[in-house]
Specification:
Distance between the termini of chain A: 86 Å
CATH topology of chain B: Hypothetical Protein Aq_1857, Chain: A
CATH topology of the largest domain in chain A: Nucleotidyltransferase, domain 5
Shape of chain B: globular
CATH architecture of the largest domain in chain A: 2-Layer Sandwich
CATH class of the largest domain in chain A: Alpha Beta
Radius of gyration of chain B: 14 Å
Strand content of chain B: 35-45%
Oligomer: heterodimer
Radius of gyration of chain A: 31 Å
Strand content of chain A: 15-25%
Largest interface: A-B, 28 and 38 residues
Helix content of chain B: 10-25%
Strand order of the largest sheet of chain B: 4-5-2-3-9-8
CATH superfamily of the largest domain in chain A: ATPase, nucleotide binding domain
Number of domains of chain A: 4
CATH architecture of chain B: Sandwich
Number of strands of chain A: 26
CATH superfamily of chain B: HesB-like domain
Distance between the termini of chain B: 17 Å
Structural class of chain A: alpha+beta
Chain lengths: 622, 107
């Protein structure tokens, strides 16, 4: 007999029509799946009652695949075929990976994304992630008793298009319909119901197993806008374990340990850390493989001293994020704690002291992202009434395209809410131009060379027309997951070209913040650079037009002296174009315009004469 | 004429209601759809209709409309776990036949 859940008033589904939707927190260290049942967001457990699924995938010799705790247990014995922290490789090229020496995998540089060689063949990070997602989907379908309608999957706020697309691809491979990708900090805020609360700025402090992320969100009119993100991709709860581990080594004066003892003591260290979250002291006893007995005593105060530098390390990125967002501490309305490591009392205390207010901690910090994603999934699947506001995300960096002179024309400004579509008209630069190259870029700077190239494509078969006559409408469309598609269409002929942007390389979070920062810092020089390029493009266009005109009529309409005078001005402008003084170029353009006034007037007369030549006045419609 | 909840079901409903932050009780009902005629519905209640009948069981207000009541009178609502799944179950003495999935029934 099927088990029923309580629905919202009037929202009862017909039998077999339940819209089962889940939220998935696809984490670097651990992943979770949650759903809303009887109006309440809950994390789904596996058969053994575990909520967390370690994000570890192991390829076995017999072709089987292990995911989760089973795979994690074999990590040190079979490192090359046991993939951990695959999220770090999503949408990344080999060059993007720092510290390759410390990663035990056999990487293969493939176009677009790095691949990992395992005994089961070459696997892309997308395939590995799909295994984790598949395990979560099976768990959810068992727990909910039916097929999933869809899922909301969370990604870090700093994930770029490539990383988001890779996540979506992994879900598709796992047989999951992605309702939407949601930023992790936004999901945490939703779990706390902040989206229904008062408008303001919120901090999401996320200290996970191996990564630290701090995000600053602004809620206005039901939309969360990411003001800034910062973090440390090599700082997490595991570092606290390692600090205790080192302390044990020092105190017990142990020689370098074998792998088995290292694992034993690291596990011990983790237990000690968790114990000290609730207690004041702990007795550490362990028997090593050679029979040595360790017996040590550690107090909570000592532990705080041992790890205070790690806590301080999280506050630096926090300060930077505050500075990037241009905020002071008084602007902060609330602080949300995410990640298991934020259970440690001295972390909560440090955060509370820094922000001058108690952080929100009443939800389980390991589960809060998944819980928020589930709430969003429930709304998107249509299990709530329509008056519930749909939460929207914004695009992190402006999207635009390259125009003549290497300038960026922004089509969608950053922080536009998703989904969004914007169109802009462009035209041809030269007479008879039949193709146009469209270069899509992302970033805040004025010059293409300072932005990130996302994609290039060509619009061909434009009917030949005079320069500036063609009307090419370029439409940028970003869907609810932040994925971009660009369409170019010549309006008179209807020729069209289209591209879905799957950029080949990822942006690191540093690059994103760096790009934003430099756009502010370089505002003035960018303005000058833009002025220079614009004057150069103007000058070039003028020179080409005059050259064409001289070829056509220069010998019939001008005396040799007049022609020489014009050519001299052209020569002067030609020299100036290559230099970087926009004022000088503008002056030379004016001079050349002035010098060709007579020529232009004579050409006009000549063409009027030609048009009227041999025609009866009556046949002209005036 | 009565509808009852088991103690487990009642405590669950209370938890869900308090988590939801609003609502005065639980509505049980039947809809004439499904593979064998009737289907149960289970919803939170924000507003009462004039014809609604109300019962009280373990401190939870249970609301039923009179048309549904004739099909589910005497029902005990339970909350159970089956493997990883958990949810509410209608123990309805009027049922003659259920479809395989148990989501709909005939009397």
């Amino acid at each position: 007999m099927a088990l029923l859940q309580i629905a919202e008033p009037g929202m009862s589904a017909a039998p077999h029509q339940h819209r089962l939707a889940v939220g998935i927190d696809l984490g670097t260290t651990n992943s979770l799946v949650a759903t809303v049942r009887s109006g309440m967001s809950t994390v789904l457990h596996d058969e053994k009652g575990h909520a967390l699924l370690p994000s570890v995938v192991r390829y076995l010799a017999d072709g089987a695949i292990e995911v989760g705790y089973a795979a994690q247990a074999q990590q040190s014995r079979d490192p090359q075929n046991t993939i951990v922290s695959v999220k770090r490789f999503m949408g990344r090229g080999l060059n993007d990976l720092a510290d390759q020496a410390h990663i035990p995998y056999r990487f293969i540089d493939a176009p677009g994304m790095v691949q990992i060689e395992t005994r089961a063949g070459i696997k892309s990070p997308v395939e590995v992630s799909a295994e984790i997602l598949k395990a979560l989907r099976l768990r959810a379908e068992k727990a909910l008793g039916g097929e999933l309608t869809g899922a909301v999957i969370t990604v870090p706020a700093y994930f770029d298009d490539a990383q988001r697309q890779a996540t979506k691809d992994a879900a598709r491979l796992a047989g999951i319909n992605v309702l939407r990708l949601l930023n992790e900090p936004t999901a945490a805020a939703v779990a706390y119901g902040l989206d229904n609360g008062s408008e303001g700025v919120y901090i999401i402090y996320d200290l996970g197993g191996g990564t630290f992320d701090v995000s600053i969100l602004r809620l206005s009119k039901g939309v969360f806008e990411v003001l800034s993100t910062n973090g440390d991709s090599a700082l997490g709860g595991d570092d606290f374990d390692r600090r205790i581990f080192c302390w044990i080594l020092e105190q017990a004066k142990l020689p370098p340990l074998n792998a088995e003892d290292t694992r034993l003591l690291l596990t011990k260290a983790r237990e000690v850390k968790e114990w000290l979250t609730e207690h004041h002291e702990v007795q550490i006893t362990s028997v090593l493989s050679n029979g040595d007995v360790i017996n040590l005593h550690l107090t909570a105060e000592q532990f705080v001293d041992l790890t205070s530098h790690l806590v301080a390390k999280t506050l630096n990125p926090t300060r930077k994020a505050m500075r990037d967002a241009g905020l002071t501490l008084e602007d902060i309305k609330g602080v949300v704690m995410v990640g298991g490591a934020t259970r440690m009392p001295h972390i909560r205390q440090a955060v509370a002291e820094y922000f001058g207010q108690e952080p929100l901690t009443n939800l389980d910090p390991d589960k809060v992202v998944a819980l928020g994603a589930a709430i969003q999934a429930n709304v998107l699947a249509g299990n709530r009434s329509d008056d519930d506001l749909l939460l929207l995300d914004v695009i992190p960096l402006s999207l635009g395209l390259e125009t003549m002179g290497g300038l960026v024309e922004k089509v969608i400004p950053r922080n536009s809410t998703l989904p969004v579509a914007r169109a802009q008209d462009f035209t041809t630069f030269k007479d008879g131009q039949t193709a146009m190259s469209i270069h899509v870029v992302q970033g805040e700077r004025e010059l293409v060379s300072d932005c990130r190239s996302l994609a290039r494509f060509e619009l061909r078969s434009i009917p030949p027309m005079a320069a500036g006559a063609a009307r090419i409408r370029v439409t940028f469309q970003v869907d609810a997951d932040g994925l971009l598609s660009v369409t170019a269409r010549e309006q008179t002929s209807g020729v069209e070209s289209h591209i879905v942007v799957k950029p080949s390389y990822g942006l690191s979070e540093d690059t994103i913040t760096g790009m934003l920062q430099s756009s502010f810092a370089a505002a003035e020089s960018d303005k000058q650079a833009r002025a220079l390029r614009e004057s150069q493009v103007d000058a070039q266009r003028l020179l080409e037009a005059i050259t064409a005109a001289l070829q056509q009529d220069g010998y019939t309409l001008l005396s040799p002296e007049e022609r020489a005078a014009i050519e001299q001005e052209m020569q002067a402008l030609q020299t100036l174009i290559t230099q970087d003084d926009s004022h000088a170029i503008t002056r030379a353009v004016d001079a050349l315009n002035h010098a060709t006034e007579t020529f232009a007037a004579r050409r006009m007369d000549a063409s009027v004469k030609q048009a009227f030549a041999g025609q009866n006045l009556n046949s002209l419609e005036i | 004429m009565a509808i009852t909840l088991t103690e487990t079901a009642a405590s669950r409903v209370q938890k869900f209601l308090s988590n939801r932050g609003k609502g005065i009780g639980l509505r049980l009902g039947v809809k004439t759809t499904g593979c064998s005629g009737m289907a149960y519905t289970l919803e939170f209640v924000d507003d009462l209709n004039p014809e609604d009948m109300a019962f009280e069981s373990h401190g939870v207000k249970v609301i039923v409309d009179p048309k549904s009541l004739v099909y589910i009178d005497g029902t005990e609502l339970d909350f159970t776990k089956e493997g990883l799944n958990e949810g509410f179950k209608f123990n309805n003495p009027n049922v003659k036949d259920e479809c395989g999935c148990g989501e709909s029934f005939t009397i």
